[in-house]
Automatic annotation (TrEMBL):
GO terms for molecular function: cellulose 1,4-beta-cellobiosidase activity. Residues 424-438 have a biased composition (Polar residues). SUPFAM superfamilies: Concanavalin A-like lectins/glucanases. One of its GO terms (biological process) is cellulose catabolic process. The keyword Signal applies. This is Glucanase. It comes from the Eukaryota. Its EC number is 3.2.1.-. Transmembrane segments: none annotated. Belongs to the glycosyl hydrolase 7 (cellulase C) family. Residues 412-438 are annotated as: Disordered. Residues 1-18 form the signal peptide.
Amino acid sequence: MFPTLALVSLSFLAIAYGQQVGTLTAETHPKLSVSQCTAGGSCTTVQRSVVLDSNWRWLHDVGGSTNCYTGNTWDDSLCPDPTTCAANCALDGADYSGTYGITTSGNALSLKFVTQGPYSTNIGSRVYLLSEDDSTYEMFNLKNQEFTFDVDMSALPCGLNGALYFVEMDKDGGSGRFPTNKAGSKYGTGYCDTQCPHDIKFINGEANVLDWAGSSNDPNAGTGHYGTCCNEMDIWEANSMGAAVTPHVCTVQGQTRCEGTDCGDGDERYDGICDKDGCDFNSWRMGDQTFLGPGKTVDTSSKFTVVTQFITADNTTSGDLSEIRRLYVQNGKVIANSKTQIAGMDAYDSITDDFCNAQKTTFGDTNTFEQMGGLATMGDAFETGMVLVMSIWDDHEAKMLWLDSDYPTDADASAPGVSRGPCPTTSGDPTDVESQSPGATVIFSNIKTGPIGSTFTS
Ligand SMILES: *[C@@H]1O[C@H](CO)[C@@H](O)[C@H](O)[C@H]1NC(C)=O
């Protein structure tokens, strides 16, 4: 994930849970079935559910309906300091479809970009997969395993991101380590990623009210003193014009609150505790502009299957992660990943430490990914356990140009690594995409995990 998500806050009439729990709306997690496969290729369907991230929820005073947070501003009397705010404020239940445009049916999850609710307009969303207990996160270790899903992103234009990824959150959302967090994973608390986002309203059981500043271009978001960091495996960051698979690592394991230089903000991007750039494989950026898009080899105008294999050095679940392989299945045909076609690089078609080193050298990029331990560190995070995230978002910092256009915009677009997709550098402004593509939607379905080769057939 590159910059932070666009958030919306709601000015409702009713309930609030800060890091307490509010009860004005019942919290009913949408059901989602997923499959677990065995080496022979037989798969069992299990019932799971998804939970909305706490940042999107109505936050109000405990027992009342006064907003603790409105637009991008905290209420001074309810939230004079981090701990008082956490005690005074409650997170409420979510109307998943009516307010947030989140619906499930069988094994499919649909996330709508703009939802006009009764009291508010919601932009984007982020949900986590819960385990069979319907209240703690499902933890994944994908070493020597494969993760597969179908995606329909035909209705996702330039500037949007339908993302499926893993982050190293606490199974209980942090309520065990930080007892002032009473809401926990049942209310989607404890988010972290390698961008060490500062826009999270509660971190480590405290409100992020210190130094809080509303965003200059997002009426629903702001940033506080602290960020929240952790390892992140981006399986899929994509729209109909392009896609990237990107491991990112940190020098710390598990969700970690940061401040100052450790957060790696602005000019200190490469001085923080996490690798913000990651080691990305984006077929267009790696030199094949014919591979993925509308009408291309992987045709984004209809649904297809995305398979990601996590190979270890000794082919066991305890070995070091050594390779991340990608393949696609569409219309019954298995499609091998595109090969790198960049002068000075071998024809890599998967992510290995060799690939990352070669790519960073050839593109002249800073190699914090390998400095922080590369794929082995990513594998260590899976051993700790990672949480599945699915989201739809637009980008108030960089217009998603790092995914689908030329980026940085002041670089020579013909220099290797600068062109990442066909979208114009003028595309992706949140004001434009929110007004022009309110119906944009991503549908993730048919999630499967299992041993290498068990989750798909040709
Ligand atoms: C792991 O499996 C691959 C593919 O089956 C094989 O080529 C490789 O030699 C194996 N590696 C080890 C260390 O057993």
